[in-house]
Each structure stands twice: as C-alpha cells, then as structure tokens.
Amino acid sequence: xxxxxxxxxxxxxxxxxxxxxxxxxxxxxxxxxxxxxxxxxxxxxxxxxxxxxxxxxxxxxxxxxxxxxxxxxxxxxxxxxxxxxxxxxxxxxxxxxxxxxxxxxxxxxxxxxxxxxxxxxxxxxxxxxxxxxxxxxxxxxxxxxxxxxxxxxxxxxxxxxxxxxxxxxxxxxxxxxxxxxxxxxxxxxxxxxxxxxxxxxxxxxxxxxxxxxxxxxxxxxxxxxxxxxxxxxxxxxxxxxxxxxxxxxxxxxxxxxxxxxxxxxxxxxxxxxxxxxxxxxxxxxxxxxxxxxxxxxxxxxxxxxxxxxxxxxxxxxxxxxxxxxxxxxxxxxxxxxxxxxxxxxxxxxxxxxxxxxxxxxxxxxxxxxxxxxxxxxxxxxxxxxxxxxxxxxxxxxxxxxxxxxxxxxxxxxxxxxxxxxxxxxx
Length: 426
What we know:
Elements: H1 9-13, E1 17-20, H2 25-37, E2 41-44, H3 51-59, H4 66-80, E3 89-94, H5 105-115, E4 123-126, H6 141-164, H7 173-191, H8 198-213, E5 224-230, H9 232-236, H10 238-241, H11 244-250, E6 253-256, H12 260-278, H13 285-309, H14 318-325, H15 338-350, E7 355-361, H16 365-370, H17 375-381, E8 386-392, H18 398-425
Parallel strand pairs: 1-2, 1-3, 3-4, 5-6, 5-7, 7-8
C-alpha cells in the first residue's frame, strides 16, 4: 500500500483541479484544453517571481536541483494563494524514469507537501515509462497525439517568433502576433471534439508562416545569432533562466532555440538505441521506431512549409543532428539531456550561430559533462562559435549571469564582423 496520496477515479469524476508547472508558456497553454477534453481539469501555473525559489527552499534542501526548487515553490505558492481548494486539488509532475535527479522530483514534492501540511494532496506522475500505474491519470494514444500537436504548433510559433523579434520595425508586433496565434490555437483545441484534422493543421502552419512573414522587418542589419541549449527546464522556462531570450534580444541578438520536439525525439530514440546496445526492449522497440518515424514526418512537414514560403530558416533535421553527434559523443550517453545537448550545440554551430549559451542548474553533473565538458572539442571543430556555460541556482545573481553573457556577445560580434567583411571581399 502506498504511503502517499493517489489520484483516484473519484477525484477525476469530481473534477479535481490539477495544477501543472509551466515550462513553455505557448506550448503549455495549448495543452491545457487538451487535458480538459480527456477529463483532467488542468490548470497551467502562471505565478512567477523570485519568491518561488524562496518558497521551494523552505521545503527542500538547498543542494536540490534548481528546477525542482522552482517547480516545488511554484506549486506550493499556488496552493497557499487561496485560489484553489486544498481538498480538491492534485499536482502534476513529469517523471522521465531515467538516471537524472528529475526522476526523483516527484518524491521530493511529496515530502515537501507533507512538511507544508498538504500531505493529503495527490501528486500525479506524467510519464511514458509505466510508473505509478495505480494512478487514475492515464495518457491514452488520442491524448498523446493531441499533445504532440500542441508541441509542434508551439515549436513552430517559437521558431517564427525568434526569427522575427530582432528585426521588427514596430516593437511588439511579433509578440502580439505570437499571442494571437497561441490564443487562436488554444480555442481550436477547446472546440475540437476529435483529433484535429490533418488538412486543418497544415492550413494553420501555412497561415502562420505567411502572417509572420508579413510583419514589417529590417533584414539589412545583421544580428549576432545566439543559440540556447541546456537542461530542459532552465533552457525553456523564463522562470528558470531569468527570461534569457528577452535579455538576448534586448542586447541585439537573434535567438536560436532547438524545439521541444527534439527532446521528445531524443527520448524515443534512446529506447531504440538501448535495444541496439543491450538487446533490451525487443517487444517494444518496433513501437518506438513507429513513433520516431511519425514524429520525424510531422517535423519534416513543417520544415517543407517554411522552406516553400522562403522567408525563414527551417529547423535542422533531427536525424542529421543525431548523426553529427556521433563524431563527438556516444549515443548511449543519455543521463540528463545526454548526447542531445552536444548535438544541439553542433547543430547551432552549423546553423551559423556565433554564440551559444549553455544553461545548467548548478551542480547538475550530467549537464556539466555533456554540456560544459564538450565545449572544448566542439570549439576545436567549430572555431567561429563562442560558447559560455551559465549556472542557474537560487544563490546565483542575475547580474553576474548577464555580465558573462555580455562578454560572450562581444566576442560573437567580432566574429560576425569578420564574417561579413570576408563575405564582402569575395
């Protein structure tokens, strides 16, 4: 018998509010109505601020991984806010099932809830590894397909937004359009009673590209391109990285950020690689191969639409990034973000980035190995890219982080100026 509260069928029938930590605001906004369609009254958290880390530190040790401190602080702050009935609420936490400390966040959260006097609140494990089967929360195939659709749309919006913001003639045009499209897609997810039709999705993709291409922009001024990689939460979450993308844009840079789908593909491919290396999962590996091909197909459809319109750069094909990584790191390295982090840095260097910010929770050993530890060999093979590893922690000061990034940007601008000078001489 479990010694913690379990999310039951009765709780689902009684429409318990499920509080969900927010990592990717545009993506997760679209996921909320999908979860509601399948019977889960999800609420994506929108509470932000430095006080969340302070709340987290009240209930977990300060050596705990920074994303866990923030997420636990965000959830407990929401319960304390009075906006939700503590007796009719559940919390959702992702669980990878791997060797990273992220797999243990759920146990840290349960311990923190008991300490805060909320031990009766159930914590739901959002995982695809078959863990915590006693929970009434189930990810069905139709629900999974819809959630992937939200990931694809969110990635596309993020990609188009990043390629427009530094060049817009009227400040705010890009963000207003991104919000309008996020709201529109969210409404469509709410209205759809069955799987979003294939033709409707492709129509939306084409219209999104046309709408962003119509934003008045000045493309004559060359901007330094800076990629963001790292541990998944601090890479994507404005809460985790102190609004890093906004800071880079304010410093005159164009941000390049590999999408969330890359992480999904990486997780799926790891199961295929496990079979190659260890012979493990013989019965399930055909399913993972099918999922991998499906996700690649959907990603390539978006790339073709972007290429045909002609204004924006498509994302790098995931298979290409994976093959490129083999020259630097084994594909059996999968703790934390594993070989994906190295692959993304190589992808960004190939995509023309003059700078890369590698975001890392302080003390995250896997990310220090596959991120900071791989910087030297990557620089040796890609002389024009400047890489800086930035630690994010409750005790780290934002000004120190930004000063280190500014130093990287200064070096990156020198590279851009030299590249432009060489181009003109050709």
